[in-house]
Amino acid sequence: MWKLSARGARGTPFKELGNFASITEAAEVIAKREKAEGFIFFRVVADLWREEPHTDAEILSCLEYQSATQYYALTREAN
Q1: DSSP secondary structure string, 13-47?
Q2: Are 65 and 30 in contact (CB under 8 A)?
Q3: Which of 38, 42, 58, 72 is least crowded, fewest Cβ atoms below 10 Å from its Cβ?
Q4: What residues have CB less than 8 Å from 52, skipping those under 6 apart?
Q5: For the chain, percent helix, then strand, then coil, each to nearest 5?
Q6: Who's near 67: CB < 8 A, 6+ residues apart?
Q7: What pLDDT, in 10s, does the model give residues 51-76?
């Protein structure tokens, strides 16, 4: 499952937009809200300063999208 959240300006609280079985289902919600036909999710953080770095699965379990007015976070929920 994927959990989609959004917020407006930096510092405003996140609002949950729902849980989805796929990235595509969550992307459709963003597309409707933003009146967009497509966009790019982006986030790859390799934080090497940690004593034990994140695994590839952990790194790729959070996808982000920034529109002109909203910031979206799509996170993979543990089964």
Answers
A1: PPEEEEEESSHHHHHHHHHHHHT-S----------
A2: yes
A3: 38
A4: none
A5: 20, 30, 50
A6: 30, 34, 36, 39
A7: 887 788 888 888 999 998 999 999 99
> For 61, left (φ over 0), alpha (ψ -120 to 50), or beta?
alpha
Tell me which residue of 19, 8, 23, 14 sits closest to 69, measured CA to CA: 8
Region at 11 (left for phi over 0; alpha for psi -120 to 50; beta for the rest): left
Encode pLDDT of 27-46 as tens digits. Answer: 999 999 999 888 788 877 77
Model's pTM, two decimal places? 0.81
